[in-house]
Amino acid sequence: MWNPQAETMSRAELTAIQTQRLQHQVTRAYESVPFYKQALAECGVHPRDIQSLDDIERLPFTVKDDFRATYPYGLFAVPLKDVVRLHASSGTTGKVVVSGYTRADLAMWGEVMARTFAAGGVTAVDIFQNFYGYGLRACVAK
């Protein structure tokens, strides 16, 4: 989330926050997603090994085949009941790739996009079209 004090934050303070967030994300993936627990083990990395931002180089990449191999929900870090929107590729280059979003994910995405548009000069009177060419299909749970 946006931190208005970030503009006055020192490089050391920013690095400390980023490191803490990286540690949190790696721990969450390790504890919540069996795929990542195995992938980290194969790289010889445990979440406690992440001590600085430089340790990001030790983490395995997630590639499109990983989404296919764990289809449909094997990379989700939350229970399916917490997923309120699904996006899926068209599957034209292989198996469909599914991404799930929680209410918190959608709220954060809305904030990020609002900040991006504002930084680009978009105002409340502007009209724009947002379209994707990758076969986006969406389902929204009520």
Describe this structure in words.
This protein has 142 residues and is mainly alpha-helical. It has a 3-stranded antiparallel β-sheet. The protein has 2 domains: 1-61, no CATH class; 62-142, no CATH class. Mean pLDDT is 87; it is low at 134-139. It is built from 4 helices and 3 strands. The chain is flat. The two termini are 25 Å apart.
Secondary structure topology:
Layout lengths: L10 H22 L1 H9 L21 H6 L15 E4 L9 E4 L1 H17 L17 E4 L2
Antiparallel strand pairs: 1-2, 1-3
Supply the key terms.
142 residues, 3 strands, 3-stranded antiparallel beta sheet, mainly alpha, 8% strand, 38% helix
> Could you describe the largest sheet, including whether it forms a barrel?
3 strands, antiparallel
N- to C-terminal distance: 25 Å
Strand segment tally: 3
- Please bin the fraction of helical residues: 25-40%
Q: Name the beta content range.
A: 5-15%
Low-confidence stretches: 134-139
Q: Work out the count of structural domains.
A: 2
Give, in order, the helices and strands: HHHEEHE
Radius of gyration: 18 Å
Class based on secondary structure composition and strand pairing: mainly alpha
Concise account of the structure shown:
About 40% of the residues lie in helices and about 10% in strands.
